[in-house]
Amino acid sequence: xxxxxxxxxxxxxxxxxxxxxxxxxxxxxxxxxxxxxxxxxxxxxxxxxxxxxxxxxxxxxxxxxxxxxxxxxxxxxxxxxxxxxxxxxxxxxxxxxxxxxxxxxxxxxxxxxxxxxxxxxxxxxxxxxxxxxxxxxxxxxxxxxxxxxxxxxxxxxxxxxxxxxxxxxxxxxxxxxxxxxxxxxxxxxxxxxxxxxxxxxxxxxxxxxxxxxxxxxxxxxxxxxxxxxxxxxxxxxxxxxxxxxxxxxxxxxxxxxxxxxxxxxxxxxxxxxxxxxxxxxxxxxxxxxxxxxxxxxxxxxxxxxxxxxxxxxxxxxxxxxxxxxxxxxxxxxxxxxxxxxxxxxxxxxxxxxxxxxxxxxxxxxxxxxxxxxxxxxxxxxxxxxxxxxxxxxxxxxxx
Length: 399
Ligand code: GLA
Known about the structure:
Bound molecules: alpha-D-galactopyranose
Structural class: alpha/beta
CATH class of the largest domain: Alpha Beta
Mean pLDDT: 94
């Protein structure tokens, strides 16, 4: 049968459409790297040390995390943030600062791995990092391969100096570069929530910042919580909202406020990336004991790391400063946070119906006091200090 012009043109159209579909699939497959099934936990240099990073610091931090209980509590990634990089070689390979990292990044990665930890690094999807170091724009593939050759397990990719670039396109290019790097690398997107990442980032990275940078102040914690809480429905295993790293232990907030900061991050299934000087956590000081009590609270960490991977949300806020948050957990229990944003101690009551329980009785455990009530009926209530929380885990008792 001779091919008519019409048949020929439909054939060409079919081939073209199929080609476009295949190309689209190839350039934007959903992220399925199998990583970060629970929110990443670790440490990052930025909040405490800024640009003052070195091999000596990172080794000391890895030693401390392996020895002070953090590794056993789940903290895994040791990430060097901005300022480790100084130039590109004539071949385009990124060059680390040899004065600060005299043994090079591969040796540092080996050291971190030998401590039973994982190695994280920072770059920027634009032309330069936020501190003006060489960015990765146009070097995505070579950088991903370089990181893989150093044994990198986690990469945080910033968004400074990206004028005229499209965030979704650039981060997708990095996703593809990492997928082709030959190593499993957790992908942390850091564009500060400026391009609605909750709409596209779950198909691109394992976590994405929902906010600008944290600072070591209570008002900053409140701002970040209010932003990140809005996107609770997007989070799931492998894809997490990131309200930025922890400030616990850096000195700008009270013990009560740091407890709240940590509890809220756990309720939000946020990454738990410590940002303090973990080398002094074993000191005999009161301050060090307070930091240990918070960062090593395994019952609160278990809420963050729950395998169901549901981000907790606000279920009651009346008046608006007295909140009740709920996070359903894998074993059928619920984490419940009574959060007092007011400037005076206040009574907060959570009825079982409000926290999603049909049952009238429950076993209730206080995750900061580490105490338990075998049978509680109908509601939990507590006087909560100003800026403080009471964090509970509630197991319904079948009638
Ligand atoms: C941005 C990021 C921070 C940190 C700095 C480093 O501000 O949001 O987390 O990485 O850059 O320069």
